[in-house]
């Protein structure tokens, strides 16, 4: 008898788990949480525990749609008790939006089931395999926006998160990958690329998020360029939902609307 | 060569659809000083290879059914992207055609099952010593 397939293991109850990493607003010297990014992990103890390997596997199996749905269901269920003014970033493949015409309905249904207003959601779009069905993709984006969901384009400047994707998505958020951020304090060319992305985002009327900020030097570098949404280990590592709730109820976690200091580490 | 003479821990990827074989390989090669990852499916192996660097890949020819020869795909995937990685193909369904195709794709060793693990290990040791 053949073994249980890996995909079955990933999709069975408890196969996927989620942790949350804050994106901070740092514009005025304070550190306020702008949103929490939901980060999926595969089955514990397996190769798939690493998100990089998990999603590489899923894309090679061409099962992004099935797994994206499961990730959304798990993330929103874990976040159901979070404070009602906390924004949540959830990831989806562009291929899912272009193949699964029911995806937006599924997302909104899960949001409603878990008491999460869609206007708290930021949909982070990742893509690795164009071309996709642009009309269906655009329709999904329109449906998301009509429901109040904001759009972020992940990994700007890498792979297929390029100018074409920017024009197709017109995202409210430009998320800049750590590849461009890390070492930018000493790298003239990285800073030049970052600066051009910031200028482009400004012309789009979009926010910029610097991901993978792990040192004071890179933090200062992105701040100097005017980036005021920052994510990375320098400010806070990812946390499970229990830790988020513990922080929230102890008064140590500060929401954008409250505007107090944040102590999460 | 033994674990004592492996100055830097080398990393091996074992690809086989049968868990007992994967675990036996993991236990054996770990006991002699290697770091061992295992994969049961072609796509899992490809995902690992994309993110992790391996000295040696030991792959079974058939991973899902007797009609498929994913092991040959593994050879192509590895040799196109990581030419320095050595690859051993193991199969219980050897034929001159399959062996020829495996060699055409760049396999470093083609072994018929069953093969005692110390024999496989000797080939891996040879790779570690830089032998062809």
Could you please describe the fold and organization of this structure?
The complex is a heterodimer of chains A (265) and B (132). Chain A is α/β, with parallel strands linked by helices and 265 residues long. Chain A is built from eleven helices and eight strands. In chain A, a hairpin with a 6-residue loop joins strand 1 and strand 2. In chain A, helix 3 packs parallel to helix 5. Chain A is globular. Chain A starts with 5 loop residues before the first helix and ends in a 15-residue tail after the last helix. Chain B has 132 residues and is α/β, with parallel strands linked by helices. In chain B, helix 2 runs parallel beside helix 3 and helix 3 runs parallel beside helix 4. The longest helix of chain B has 13 residues. Chain B is globular. Chain B is built from five helices and five strands. Chain B has a single domain, classed as 3-Layer(aba) Sandwich (Rossmann fold), CATH 3.40.50.2300. At the A-B interface, helix 2 of A face helix 2 of B.
Helix amount of chain A: 40-55%
Strand order of the largest sheet of chain B: 2-1-3-4-5
For this entry, what is the oligomeric state of its chains? heterodimer
Given this structure, which CATH class of the domain at 6-175 and 236-245 in chain A is correct?
Answer: Alpha Beta
Order of helices and strands of chain A: HEEHHEHHEHEHEHHEHEH
Uncertain runs of chain A with pLDDT below 50, 5 residues or more?
256-261
Number of strands of chain B: 5
Global geometry of chain B: globular
Describe the structure in brief.
The complex is a heterodimer of chains A (265) and B (132). Chain A has helices at 6-11, 51-61, 64-78, 94-99, 103-113, 134-146, 163-169, 178-181, 188-204, 216-224, 241-250, and strands at 17-25, 32-41, 88-93, 121-126, 150-156, 173-176, 207-210, 229-230.
